[in-house]
Write a structure and sequence with these properties.
The complex is a heterodimer. Chain A has a nine-stranded mixed beta sheet, covered by helices on one side. In chain A, about 25% of the residues lie in helices and about 35% in strands. The model of chain A has no long low-confidence stretch (mean pLDDT about 95). In chain A, β8 and β9 (about 75-80) form a beta hairpin. By secondary structure, chain A is of the alpha+beta class. Chain B is α/β, with parallel strands linked by helices. Chain B has a single domain (about 5-130, about 155-245), classed as P-loop containing nucleotide triphosphate hydrolases (Rossmann fold, 3-Layer(aba) Sandwich), CATH 3.40.50. Chain B has helices spanning about 15-25, 50-55, 65-80, 130-140, 145-150, 175-185, 195-200, 205-215, 220-230, 235-245, 265-270, 270-290, 300, and strands at about 5-10, 95-100, 120-125, 160, 170-175, 190-195. Classes of the chains: A alpha+beta, B alpha/beta. The interface between A and B is large, with 43 and 41 residues.
Chain lengths: ~300, ~300
């Protein structure tokens, strides 16, 4: 049995989850991951997608030729690899999508974000897959900011917003590893047939900490110039909801108002911004300078 | 609920111009035409973001083949779902036109990659003379015309097929140009309306109207004429020269996307030998579409 802490939950798993934060075995874990046969469909589905069904507290996710996942009541994940598939090749979907769905089931505010520690607070970078979240976090670690989270995190906004990170390693494509000269930190492949790898950051602080700022990442393009701007509260709420780990679930599980309230608190306590920049390695150093200047401006850096 | 039609073509065949016309048509009073503000629902079928959104799975963690396995169900679901609830309904009178450069292919189990009849009601297929295509592809990709001829003749050609980083789009197979066109014209799942880019250039109002009528949309000719004037090729080109274009290739040094837009430009851009090579490979499909090969021996003599 493996024990991890992921986004504020203690997780007992039969399957090794590379990249996750290993902790001592808890007496009563919040969630369990087991390898078990799952049904092909669930009875009485109330909401469905192309490859998933939700029936009450049972959420069935199908990835053909890879695995099926049954996520139950925010406490359990059953993993059923397709015939001939190595369990190690499925682990990334447990550590990401399945745990993310479980957190959505628990009604948490789950952000699709990477993050680094600036001063004593977490700065998050949100965006869909491919927006450059991990690359930006990796580049910032090279300027001395420890990694807080890579792919998602929970933000608890009951009082002052607190970030609960997903793990301690970054996941980067071969191109980013080359561009950032991180070959020596490279660990195993995220999946056997992909050129995306776990990368050991020079420093990481995968512990709960106050939220400092959230940046939504956008690519600069004609009509959208680079820079940092603060959206109004309605757009900030939209930014937050669109960058939920799985925005469709926020919608289908009726959690929009939760995200709206959380956005208001986060905008108040920390600040929600758009960060627009060219998606090009050549612009990275200048972009980091601009971010550091912004952190001084908003008081995160002395 | 809106109805979906594919707007299918080999790249650089006039697909974007058609989408510009649709957007010009959809302009509301007081809105000005902006080539960089194409409506989201006119996005491309191979875009990753909508796939990730609806399947809850990051396509970047799937191999190309694994992603393809999910694509038919994804397109069927997408036809029934506004994938971004914050966006207005951007369909044109209830019709979504979705750009697609994929050839019409099937998975190993025979299922159509694009989801068949449940994912779309029909396909508007735009074709272009492959001799003009070669020059346009060369400019777009920043390669020689010879290389472009190689690409349009390559049965395994695919876009977004890199493996060192995550492309914004899913890999999409083009096949070679003749096979691409044949895959759409000859598939048995969907009704097809095909049109030549050259005819669109010659008489845009008429051919635009015919394509829209195929999708069940009948619009007053004055409205169509206004859209055609608004998204006129010179207007597209001058907007791009002034502000750049989102979809131009070459990030830091973009190459013009709207270049000449001419029909028959190949006569002064291609050598006789290059023309002969294209015709040798694609003559059958060219004849089928009404592009007469100049053929013959002069090619060999001049090379």
């Amino acid at each position: 049995m493996f024990s991890y802490r992921v986004a504020g939950l203690s997780v007992a798993s039969e399957i090794e989850l590379p990249g996750a934060l290993v902790v001592a075995e808890p007496e009563a874990p919040d969630a369990r991951v087991r390898r078990a046969a799952t049904p092909d469909s669930v009875e009485g589905a109330t909401t469905e997608g192309p490859n998933w069904s939700l029936a009450g507290d049972r959420f069935l996710l199908r990835i053909p030729d890879v695995a099926r996942f049954l996520i139950i009541g925010g406490v359990e994940i059953l993993v059923d690899p397709a015939p001939g598939v190595d369990i190690a090749d499925v682990a990334i979907f447990v550590a990401g999508t399945a745990l993310g769905i479980l957190l959505h089931q628990r009604g948490r505010i789950v952000m699709h974000a990477s993050g680094v520690r600036v001063g004593k607070k977490a700065v998050l970078f949100c965006g869909p897959s491919g927006a450059g979240k991990s690359t930006l976090a990796a580049a910032l670690t090279q300027r001395g900011y420890p990694v807080v989270t890579d792919d998602f995190c929970v933000v608890a906004a009951d009082g002052a917003p607190i970030v609960h990170p997903d793990g301690r390693q970054l996941k980067l494509w071969a191109r980013s590893i080359d561009e950032l000269a991180l070959a020596e930190q490279r660990a195993g492949a995220v999946r056997a047939r992909l050129e995306k790898f776990y990368v050991e950051p020079p420093a990481s602080r995968p512990e709960p900490m106050p939220l400092g700022a959230i940046y939504g990442l956008r690519e600069a393009r004609p009509g959208l110039t680079d820079g940092i701007e603060r959206p109004n509260v309605v757009d900030a709420a939209k930014l937050l909801r669109r960058n939920a780990y799985r925005p469709l679930l926020v919608h289908r599980l009726g959690q929009k108002s939760d995200y709206f309230l959380a956005a208001a608190k986060m905008a108040n306590a920390a600040g929600i911004f758009w960060l627009t920049r060219p998606l090009d390695f050549a612009f990275l150093p200048g972009g980091l300078d601009a971010l550091e200047a912004h952190w001084r401006e908003i008081g995160l850096l002395g | 609920m809106s109805r979906t039609f594919w707007l299918a073509s080999y790249p650089k065949s006039g697909n974007t111009w058609f989408r510009m016309l649709l957007n010009a048509l959809a302009l509301k009073d007081g809105e000005s035409f902006d080539i960089n503000a194409l409506r989201r629902r006119d996005g491309i079928a191979s875009g990753r973001a909508p796939f990730d959104h609806l399947t809850l799975v990051e396509s970047g963690l799937l191999t190309f083949e694994e992603a393809d396995r999910l694509r038919p169900a994804f397109y069927r679901a997408q036809a029934h779902e506004n994938w971004d609830e914050d966006e207005d309904d951007d369909s044109l009178s209830g019709v979504r036109f979705v750009k697609v450069h994929d050839a019409y292919t099937r998975l190993p189990d025979g299922e159509p990659l694009l989801g068949g009849r449940e994912a779309a009601e029909g396909a508007i297929v735009i074709v272009r003379d492959p001799r003009d295509l070669a020059a346009s592809v060369a400019n777009h990709n920043g390669v020689s015309i010879d290389r472009a001829i190689g690409q349009i003749g390559n049965a395994k050609a695919a876009l977004a097929s890199g493996t060192k980083q995550q492309d914004l789009q899913l890999r999409h197979s083009l096949l070679d140009w003749s096979s691409h066109v044949a895959s759409w014209l000859d598939q048995p799942d969907l009704p097809v309306h095909w049109m030549r880019y050259e005819d669109m250039r010659r008489d845009p109002v008429r051919h635009f109207a015919e394509a829209l009528a195929f999708a069940g949309l009948t619009l007053p000719e004055a409205e169509l004429a206004r859209a055609v004037a608004t998204a006129d090729f010179d207007a597209l080109r001058s907007q791009e020269a002034e502000k750049g274009f989102v979809e131009a290739a070459g990030k830091t040094n973009p190459r013009p996307f709207f270049r000449r837009g001419r029909a028959g430009g190949w006569r002064d851009e291609l050598s006789a030998e290059q023309v002969a090579r294209i015709e040798a490979k694609h003559a059958d499909m060219m004849r089928r579409l009404g592009y007469e090969p100049v053929g013959g021996n002069e090619a060999g003599e001049s090379s």
